[in-house]
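Supplementary Note 3. Input sequence used for the single-chain structure prediction.
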Amino acid sequence: MKQSPFRMGWILVMFDLPVVTDRERRAATRFRNDLLDDGYLMIQFSIYARPCVSYEHQEKHIAKVKGLVPEAGNVRIMFMTDEQWKKSVTVIGKNYEQGKRAVDPAMPQQIEFWE
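The predicted structure, written as discrete structure tokens, is reproduced below.
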């Protein structure tokens, strides 16, 4: 049975975390590493995205992020369908250092293995 293209999508986690003290820097690094460990891709410095195959998985991963937020953090979590994601546009300047950030990631063909 084929799922609706509007059921599968991406969780976006956008955040501002203080990094003034050593303790805050460690908490921010731990938060980013926890996102990576849970299958998120770094899209920009404070924006991470994760493919999700269903609303149930979306709820599970959102609950997980809520438990990871540092006490001084400001985090926004959004869900974008795969159809909306495909319509997004990425514009990168010719001298921009991409580093480890994902460039136009697509929904994996075998998403069930991610979940």
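The first helix runs from residue 22 to 37. The first strand starts at residue 9 and ends at 16.
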